[in-house]
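Take a sample.
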Amino acid sequence: MIAYQAPKGLVQRVVLKDGRYIIPRADGLLLVGSTLEEVGFDKRTDEAALASLKQSAEAILPALATCPVAHQWAGLRPGSPTGLPLYRRAA
């Protein structure tokens, strides 16, 4: 994920395009996401993912090219080897 520091009001609603999204926050930050990589429990970010997100974000909204990146981060998504949800009966 990337957070751009953008002028308030640059984006008024969630924008979805080509599997990427831009989410405006009330404080002016624009959240851009996301990538999906299978790396176990490693939450480090890398330059390739950042470059890919920046390229997508700036293609969707060219004005972002002049906005600074406030921060970037990675999170974890639960998953299974088959992509299907896992569940079990409560004890």
The CA atoms of residues 47 and 89 lie 42 Å apart. The chain has a mean pLDDT of 86. The radius of gyration is 16 Å. Helices lie at 47-60.
